[in-house]
Amino acid sequence: MAQLWGGRFTKETDQMVYDFNASIKFDRRLYRQDIEGSMAHVKMLARQGILTEKERDLILRGLLDILQDVEDGSLEITAEYEDIHSFVEANLIKRIGDTGKKLHTGRSRNDQVALDMRLYIRDEIRHTDRLLYDLLKVLLRIMEENLDTFMPGFTHLQKAQPVTLAHHIGAYFEMFKRDRLRMADILERMNYCPLGAGALAGTTYPLDRGYTSDLLGFYGPTQNSMDSVSDRDYVIEYLAALSTVMMHLSRFSEEIIIWNSNEYHFVELDDAYSTGSSIMPQKKNPDIAELVRGKTGRVYGALMSLLTTMKGLPLAYNKDMQEDKEVVFDAIDTVASCLALFTGMVDTMKFNREAMEASAKNGFTNATDVADYLVNHGVPFRDAHSISGRLVLKCIERDIALDDLTLEDFRSESTVFEEDIYEAISMKTCVEKRLTLGAPGRAAMEKVLEAGRKYMEDAEVL
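Now predict its structure.
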C-alpha cells in the first residue's frame, strides 16, 4: 500500500526493508492512546480555527467508530499497515474521505509516537500501582494474623535471632511501599505533553499546546521540542522501577522456595499455585515462585537494552527509538503477570507455625539473649559472649536446644545463672523485649501495623 511519506520516493520499498522498518506487529497495542491523542489534537485544531467545526465533528465521529470497531473485533489491525498511526489515519480516510487527510495537520509521527508512549506508560504505571496495592493488602493481613508466630531471623542464611512472621513480612511491606512511591515519582515527572513538538522544531501552525495538554490530563506542554521527541527517560525510569519490583519479588520468591523445602517446611503452597513431577509422585514444586525469580532477569534485560539503545543517539528523533517498544511491552506484561500470580500465591499460602518456632529454638537464635542475661547481671559483654558460645557448643555436641540445658549446665559456665534464665531466653521473651520502633516486639509491631492500616486507608491508587 502507499506510504504516508511516499511522495518523495519514485519506487516501492523493498518488502524485506518494509517488514524490517514496520512496527505494526507490536505498536498495535497503542491503538487506544493513538486515537485519544488524535481526538484531542482535532479538538485543538478546530478551536484554533485550523479545522471547521463540521470537519472536527466528522473526524471525531470517524475516530470513535474506529476505536469501537477495534475493541469489538469487527476491525482488525493487520500487517498491511506500517504502524498504528498509519492504520488509524488510513482507516479514517477510507471512512470519511479527504477530510480524514486533515487529521495530521500540525503534527509529525515523531511527536505523535512520543505522545502515544507517554499516554501508554502513564496508564501502565497506574496499573502497576494497583497491583502493588493489592499485594500490600495481602501482606498486611498476614502481618496482622502472625504477631505471635515466632521464627528464626537470618543473616548469611544462618539462623541469627528470633523474630515473628509479622516482622519478617513487614520488611517486604516496606519494600513494596517504596515501589509505589517510585511509580508516583515517575508519573509526576513524566506527565507533560509532547504533542505540538512536530518532527523536532515545532510547527508554523498556531497550535494551543496548553489546551491539548489539558484535554489529555497532562500538567502542561513540554518545554523543548527537540527533547520532546527524543526523550525516553520516563520509559527508562519505569523499567528501572519495574526491575526493582522484580528484585523484591525475586527475593521474596527465594525465601518461599526455601521455606517450602522439606528441610524447612515453613509453608504449604496451595495446589492452585504448585505443580507436580512427571516421574516423582511425591513432589509439589514451587513453580510460580521459581518462574518469578527467573523472569526477573528478563525485566533487567529490557532495562539494559533500552539504556544501550539510547546511549549514543544524537538529537533529535532516530529510528533506533522504535526499539523502545517491544522490550518495554514485554517487561510490562511480565511484571503484571508476576505481581498478580505472586499475590495469589501468597494470599493462599499456609504457614506452619510450629515448624517455624521449632526452627528458631533449634538454631540457637536466643544465644544473644543468653549473653544479654549475663550482661544484665554484671558480666562484661565480651565474657558473656564467650560463655554463651561455650553453651551453644555443649548443645551442638548433645543435639539439643539452649532451652533444653539444665540449670546445672548453665551454672557450669557461670554461677550468675538462676532459674529465671529459662524465661529470659524463651522465644516469646526474646521477641517481646525488643521494643524499639521497627523491632519485632509486639508493642513495636502494633505501632507499625497501625501505621500500615492508615497507609492503606489513606493511600490513593494512582
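The longest strand covers residues 158-164.
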